[in-house]
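We modelled each protein-ligand pair independently. The example shown here corresponds to the zinc ion entry; the chain sequence is given first, followed by the ligand as SMILES.
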Amino acid sequence: MHRRVADMVYQAIQDTCLMRDIEAPEKRGQTQQGNPRRVITCRPCMKVLCDAGAKVAINGAVTHTFANPAGLMYEIMCVHYAEGCRVDSVPSVVFTWFKGCNWAVLQCAGCHVHLGWRFRGAMSFDGLITQRIMERTLDE
Ligand SMILES: [Zn+2]
């Protein structure tokens, strides 16, 4: 009786190990150096948008607060490139927040929520709406 329980526990441990083995390294939250990977994710669906190290200061600051023509306020965080987003509009220069840059709407490639804007032109970066993203360590 005790033997069978021990066997079952052993089997469960083996199954757990097998499941871990088939996970991709990035899903274990480890880089090749073994350090936890810090990432920026979509807040609603947790899709990884880019590495936390992709943050970039634009005009001297990583975060900026703007109002759109309708008066809605947005705080955005600037990153080099958010690969987990997709463009959802044609580029426009109308009411641009950054001189010399056009903008296009960015949405999450996972859940399609509006996450910010892609700016191209004099500077090239993505602006992500801080309330709709979060920074975390994978497998935290
Ligand atoms: Zn999402």
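Residues 42, 44-45, 47, 108, 110-111, 113 surround zinc ion (CB under 6 Å).
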